[in-house]
Amino acid sequence: MIQIPEHALTVVERLERYGYEAYVVGGCVRDSLLGRSPKDWDVCTNALPEEVLRVFKRFHVIKTGLQHGTVTVMVSHQPVEVTTFRIDGDYSDNRHPDSVNFVSRVEDDLARRDFTINAMAYNPTRGLVDAFGGQEDLQARTIRCVGEPDARFNEDGLRILRALRFAARYNFSIETETAFSMHRNRHLLENVSVERIFTELKGILIGEGALSMMQAFPDIFTIIIPELAPAVGFDQCNPHHCYDVWTHTAHAVQAGPAEEVLRLALLLHDIAKPATFTRGEDGKGHFYNHGELGAAQARAILLRLKSDTATLQAVETLVREHDSMLPTTAPGMRRLIGRLGVERLQQLMAIKQADISAQSTHEREQKVATLRAARLLLEDVLDEPPAFSVADLALNGRDLITMGVKPGPAMGDILKTLLAEVQDELLDNTRAALEARAKELL
To answer: What is the number of other CB atoms lying within 10 angstroms of the CB of residue 365?
Structure first.
């Protein structure tokens, strides 16, 4: 039923050979039962931490969390986390147990875990241990807390986001009492570090069930990003839109490629719409400059969430540019490539496609055709010899120096002029043509 890889099986069999019980446990069991390949293999055992160290004294062992009964055993350069059966004490900070007590029964260890689908253990000889209906919930495609939901979430507020991540990842639903408890206890997320929140948020957004989670739990998303709250239920009053801002955002997120940067950008792309809303004389809603203001808000949010710089810069640019017109001429496309770069421009087109798919059918065919034409134009431009920046010119600064130009602003102005004329197809990007034009400029 579950194929345990050699490095994890070595750990289980060695513990059993020394007279202890050992099981693979948690996510690796869950994913195996779903027919997926687990990334990590964890083992639980009734061997106490010091006994685990003795059993694996000839192995490289990392004392990952010895006080909580966890060590990492390296087998064939593969890590296997080994944890002693335990029950947790009080969680005074709603995040970490104040103490742990080691126990002898695997069922007691499974009872402390978050969700039923994560509370299963497997041993090749004894089979599957499933005391809380994890298999049944996998078959029903349901996320359910082990035991009392309020107790589980008060132990660790991050579990609220973990429930959303698992549901989004597997496109599962969340059991009613678990969902009610998540709404009720969402304030516990205020006790969780922003780094952990950001990691879980990205996992939710790239899941195949992101749309349903955003629709069902806007109050949780607005706890972790309060700037999103005005978008919930905000009527756009515009024929191009059939949803309020938040629902449109949710559909756009789901429509975008399952990549963190793109889905973060889609989550935040219309965040400034409520603040920029105006109504024209015809009664239609308008959101002038919402991309510019949204980019500033996105930057502030990602700084607060301690995003890495590359992600922050990419999302900020995509939010700023998402509503801009794409070039219809080769010179315009070359300039845009020079400003954004090819990768960012391709990301922008993916954002625009997702945005269009989440709008009404009003003028949709025209929008899709315009985007298709821009993509074809981009391909045509990329097939040409590049002239997207001064570095692509057949003439460089050293060449200008030999012509008598001194380094400084004048040299920069000449190179920019040459680039603009090459991009506008007024000048061939050859050394002879550029030299002749440079002499004229001099």
So the answer is: 9
* 331 within some domain: yes
Q: Which CB contacts under 8 angstroms, 24+ apart, belong to 324-328?
A: 324/291, 326/352, 326/370, 326/371, 326/374, 327/374, 327/377, 328/373, 328/374, 328/377
The pLDDT tens digits for 124-176 are 999 999 999 999 999 999 999 999 999 999 999 999 999 999 999 999 999 99
Angstrom distances, CA of residue 225 to CA of 76, 198, 231, 317: 43, 10, 11, 19
366 and 437 together in one domain: no
Q: Report helix angle 342-357 to 309-321, nearest 10.
A: 60
Torsion of CA 253, 259, 262, 267, to 10 degrees: 40
| Pair (298, 325) in one structural domain | yes
| Residue 174 maps to a domain | no
Q: Give the range of the structural domain holding residue 279, as residue numbers without chain letter.
A: 226-384
Question: Coil, strand or helix: which one is 86?
Answer: strand
Q: Which is it for strands 42-45 and 78-84: parallel, antiparallel or unpaired?
A: parallel
- Residue 212 has phi, psi (to 5 degrees) of -65, -35
And the tokens for 154? 């008060």
Structurally, how many domains does the chain consist of? 3
Same domain for 338 and 424, yes or no, is no
Please list the alpha-helical segments (H only) found in 208-259. Answer: 210-216, 218-224, 245-255
If 0-12 CB within 10 Å is exposed, 13-18 middle and 19+ buried, where does residue 265 land? buried
Work out whether the CA dihedral 142, 146, 151, 155 comes out positive or negative.
negative
Instruction: Report if residue 217 sits inside a domain.
Output: no
Residue 101 token pair: 């007590």
Which residue reads 């009492």 in tokens? 177
pLDDT tens, residue by residue, 70-128: 999 999 999 999 999 999 877 766 666 777 899 999 999 999 999 999 999 999 999 99
The predicted-structure confidence for 308-366, as pLDDT tens digits, reads as follows 999 999 999 999 999 999 999 999 999 999 899 999 999 999 999 999 999 999 999 99
Within a domain: 317? yes
Say if residue 403 is in the same domain as residue 350: no
Per the listing, tokens 């509370």 go with 119
Q: How far apart are the first and last CA of the chain?
A: 79
- The CA–CA distances, whole Å, from 345 to 350, 352, 362 equal 9, 11, 25
106 neighbors 45 (Cβ within 8 angstroms) = no
Phi, psi for residue 393 in degrees, rounded to 5: -70, 150
Same domain, 283 and 397: no
3-state secondary structure of 65: strand
Do residues 316 and 237 both lie within one domain? Answer: yes
